[in-house]
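Protein chain data
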Amino acid sequence: EDVPSQTFENKDYFCEKETFPVYESISTEEGETIRKIAIEIERPPQIEIHVWTIRKGILGHLYVEKLSKREFEGLPYFKLTTRTTLSQWKIFSEGEAQINQMCESRVCRTELEDLVKVLYLEKSEKGRC
């Protein structure tokens, strides 16, 4: 899938809110898709990784890991995909909890994709926020 290109800087702001880098890793093993979405938070300095295990479109397992930046740097396959605000990350996390309950017994491919889109910041119209 194509990811909208965005400019990444060490400190980036969107509508005067600080943004944080979001990384993603997708792998397939034994018929399961493992999708990992991570955010780098400065205080405390850590990486929060949300791990989804998807089998035949059904979210079978979801858990959250927290790593130091040093531990995260040693992990392969993660790609910087966007930057997001903490408020958007909160919306993502809350939506993830709802989808986790809703998708225990049914296919939720569309819902999962829509949830990830929450992390992408829309450029404000005419510079207004």
Residues 9 and 21 are 9 Å apart (CA to CA). The helical segments are 69-73, 86-102, 109-117.
